[in-house]
Design goal:
The chain contains 14 helices and 10 strands. Strands 1, 2, 3, 4 and 5 form a 5-stranded mixed sheet that branches. A hairpin with a 4-residue loop joins strand 7 and strand 8. The protein has 4 domains: about 90 residues, no CATH class; about 45 residues; about 120 residues, Nucleotidyltransferase, domain 5 (2-Layer Sandwich), CATH 3.30.420.10; about 90 residues. Helix 5 packs across helix 6, helix 7 runs antiparallel to helix 8 and helix 8 packs antiparallel against helix 9. The chain has about 400 residues and is α/β, with parallel strands linked by helices. About 45% of the residues lie in helices and about 20% in strands.
Length: about 400
């Protein structure tokens, strides 16, 4: 049996597929809003068709809905020329499709708000890439501009980069909900437009991330208390390790934290006290050797493996108190004895950090000395810190 192909009459086929939304404007509006929600997960907010043809980028609206009356009965009305800067593609000549609504006669152009900010030729993806370099290059805008030109061929001004940095909203968000309760606190000096400002930082030593960073024009007890109180509310309050600044102890204990002094700073402070005493009193060499020998006995206390051992060793030191040089007696009586618990809290709870080494390292990674002296406004400092903090958190966050 011979098979015969039947040819359908062309008049039966329509060039366009109609949808219910074409005939009911209210449904068209519903479909338009639904499309926007559906495309939120896309790279761009609006649903766009983007394709290259003869080295020209064509951008069209995939939804094809009138923004005024929400009708889908629209037709193409030519293109607008636009120069756009992409990081991977470089400078691109684009044609953005225009439309006219059949229903209300409204003329509109494909919405590029998801691709580029109004009045700007640099795409959002381009700017995001540049802001990533803020963290990698420590905010040195001339180096960032050089890197961009080398990668893309686009000669971007370092002033433009700085403006983008300052426009960035600092993402002062908690990376985790519950902090460990074991903190380190310190204040770093930074020059802004030639004047000293102060960076307050609270650091979670167990999770190895910063809890809070702020820049203030002064270093005052009221500000310190406010900063610590606000940033530890509804969190565990166990201990704070700090340097030996006199202001910190009373504030930390009023906020119901136990206080640990940094043992690195303690050693430095004892060395400084002895050095000044030797210089002022012109002490003989044999006496200097004797002072140093007793100093190392004090330092051995800091290496104790248990609180009981540290207490017993300290009591043994006191038995020979009358034989010690005057400066050693002063250190034992005025520096060690009244604050024994503050020096050796870490022996009662091993989770308490005995130094502020982690926060010092965090300072160096997020705002090195050669950067912090050239800033002009506090927001410039904080934006750079937060860009660097993103990298720190990604690399160093410990959840256990």
């Amino acid at each position: 049996m011979t098979s015969v192909k039947s040819i359908a009459p062309i008049s039966c086929l329509n060039y366009k597929q109609y949808k219910l939304s074409y005939f009911f404007e209210s449904f068209s509006k519903y479909e338009f809003e639904l499309g926007k929600k559906r495309n939120k997960a896309n790279k761009y907010y609006n649903s766009l068709v983007m394709y290259f043809k003869k080295d020209i980028l064509y951008i069209e609206d995939d939804l094809g809905v009138c923004p005024k009356c929400h009708s889908k009965s629209v037709f193409s009305d030519g293109y607008n020329d636009r120069l756009l800067y992409f990081y991977d593609e470089g400078a691109v000549n684009a044609k953005v499709k225009r439309y006219t609504c059949d229903n209300c006669g409204y003329n509109f152009i494909t919405d590029l708000n998801g691709v580029v900010e109004p009045g700007c030729n640099y795409t959002r993806v381009f700017k995001e890439k540049v802001l990533e370099f803020v963290a990698l290059f420590l905010g040195l805008v001339r180096k960032i501009a050089y890197k961009v030109k080398k990668d893309t061929g686009i000669d971007i001004s370092h002033t433009t980069v700085e403006n983008w940095i300052l426009e960035t909203e600092n993402e002062n968000k908690d990376i985790i909900k519950n902090y460990s309760g074991y903190y380190e606190f310190d204040i770093e000096h930074t020059k802004i437009k030639g004047e000293w400002n102060y960076r307050y930082t609270l650091f979670d030593s167990l999770h190895n991330i910063s809890v809070a960073d702020e820049v203030y024009p002064e270093e005052k007890k009221d500000l310190i208390k406010y900063f610590l109180d606000v940033n530890t509310r509804n969190q565990k309050k166990i201990s704070i390790t700090s340097d030996l600044d006199d202001k910190y102890k009373s504030i930390i204990e009023k906020l119901d934290f136990k206080h640990q002094w940094c043992l690195v700073h303690a050693r430095k402070n004892i060395n400084k006290t002895i050095k000044e005493n030797i210089k002022e009193n012109n002490i003989e060499k044999y006496e200097i050797k004797k002072i140093k020998d007793y100093k190392y006995k004090i330092f051995d206390l800091f290496e104790s493996t248990s609180y009981k051992k540290a207490r017993n060793d300290f009591n043994d030191l006191l038995k020979e108190f009358e034989d010690y040089p005057e400066i050693i007696r002063q250190i034992l009586l005025k520096q060690i004895m009244p604050y024994f618990e503050t020096y050796f809290l870490f022996l009662k709870d091993p989770k308490v950090p005995k130094t502020t080494n982690k926060i010092e390292n965090y300072f160096q990674k997020t705002l090195p000395k050669h950067i912090k002296r050239i800033m002009k406004i506090p927001k410039g400092v904080m934006t750079r810190i937060w860009q660097r903090k993103k990298i720190w958190d990604t690399r160093n966050l410990k959840t256990t």
